Amino acid sequence: MAELEPGGSGVGDAFGEQPAPGGMDAPLAPAEADLEAFWTHAIIAGRLNPIDAVGGQTDLVSLRPGAFAFGETRSAANELAELVIAGRKTATSSYSAAYGTEGESFPGVDDMWILCDGEGRPRALLRNTEVKVVPFNEVGQDVARAEGAADLPAWRAEHEQFFQSEGAELGYDFDPAGGVVIEFFTVLYAG
Question: What pTM value is reported for the model?
Answer without folding.
Answer: 0.82
